[in-house]
Structure formats: structure tokens, C-alpha cells
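dumping the sequnces here before i forget
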Amino acid sequence: MPHLRSSYLTTAAVSGGLFGAGLYVSQMVDAKKVLRFLDVTAIPSGGWDPSLAFVIVPAIVIMFIAVQWSKRRTAPLFDSSFHQPEYDKVDMRLIGGAVLFGMGWGMAGICPGPAIALIAFGPENLAIFLVTMLIGSYAGSMLVPSGHERRLADAR
Amino acid sequence: MESFSPLPAAIGGSLIGLATAVLWLGNGRIAGISGIFGQLLPPAQTVVWRLVFLVALVAAAFGAARLFPGIGMGGDVPATLVEAPVALSIPTPAWLAVAGLLTGLGTKIGNGCTSGHGVCGIARLSRRSFVAVAVFFGVAMLTVAVTGVV
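..and the predicted 3d for all of it:
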């Protein structure tokens, strides 16, 4: 079990720590700021806040470099293989799921990362959002088979 | 553009990019928060690293707010969530419960959120992630426009 070694868990802690700091510094934890980005109706009046584009672009660039670098390796440092997502088809589940998530994100202005990071600041009603998010996720896992199962089904 | 803040955004985004790079190169895992959170429930097999990741995430957000108060929230500004749009006369807790359910269900069915698809998937040039990101950004923008939640 590589997953319980200290090197593996330390990597998870460092990654989680960088992630949490990034969510705070980037102001993704501010639901209203996120909504001011999503509110494209404010573009004509000059009230639109494009800041979030400045969050996601450097994040993608850094991860892109890491992914390119990883292609020259057979395995990550602390496990025996890279865990690539197994299912690669664009299907109605993907689109339907993205529609539902888009509605939830547009209603609350917090996606899963900021919702969890906000535990640090304890805003009112956060527990309601987190518990219902977990219930929704669990319900989804009952409804939809995992990528692994779907790939096996496609291969038959 | 009263609140445009490109510098904190770019620094924070770089930290998030480093976080995803560290987890990928170290453990070969995608740092998708909805997946890490959702798989805390059974029948997950590897709960320990996910818990460690999430606890570190919360602790670092707390620490960053103490080190750099006033950049995000939680320093000198108390953190708040949104309130339900007044015109709809829905209680805010019910509004957030529906939003939470949709977020949990949608990210599970669609296999990812802003981090898993938006950062990691785009960086991996995944076709699924390009579609998912276009759809959830588009629908979120439409939802904000229709509900007027801002």
C-alpha cells in the first residue's frame, strides 16, 4: 500500500496546503466576487470583474507543464502509475452533469474547492451547502457507474 | 470594474497550479476537489490521503488569511455566502441547499468540477474537460443572468 507511506501523505498535505492558500489569495472563497465574474450581463455597464480568468489561466499553464513533463516518466514519484481518468467519451452524462453543476455554481458562487476552504472562516449556512453537496455526490454515485465500470462496459 | 484584482488572482492561481502539479507528479493523482470530497464516502478505499489533503486545504486557507488579512475573506472581513434573490422570496438556507445538491450531483455525474475539469482536464487537453468547462461556465453565467443573484 503506497497510499499510507509518509512520502505519499506528505505530498497530499503539501498539495492541499498550496491549494487552500491559492483559493484564499485568489479570492475564490469570496462567493460574491465569483458571481461578479459569472455576471456577464454587467459587461456593457463596465461592472464585470474579469479577475477569475487571471486565476485559472496560470493554474492551467503550470499544470500543463507538469503533465508534459510527466509524459517522459513511467510513474509518479510515490506511486506505481499515473491515475489517468479512464473514460474518454463525451456523452450525455458528462453534459448533463456539467449543466447541473453550472446551475449550482451560478446560484451560490462557490464550487467544491472554495466551499471546503470556507470551513476555515465559518460563514453562516456553509454547513447546509457542504452537507447537501455530499448528499448530492452520494446520490450521483448511486445513479451513475464510475468511469472504470463504463470503460469495461464499452469494451464488451 | 470596482473589484478587479489581477495580481492576487494570478498569484493564487499559480499556487493552485502548483498544488495540482505536486499531486500529479508526486502521487499521480488529479487534484479534483469534487472527486476527493465525494470519495470520502463508502465504497472509497483510499480515504486517508483525501482527508489529509482536505484538512491541509482548510488549514492553509486559515493560515493564509492570518498572514495576509484583507486579500480574500476571513481576515478583517467576515466571510459570507450569497443570499437568495429577494424577488424569488425563497429562504437563503433552502437556496443554498438546492445549490449544494446540484453541485454534488452534477460534479459526480459529470466527473469533475472547476479544478478536475477546469484546471487539470484542460491542462491534460482532455476532450471531455473542454466540453464540461464550456457547459458549466455557460450554464453558470446563464443562471446568474436569470436569477440575478449578484
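Chain A touches chain B through 122 residues (CB under 8 Å).
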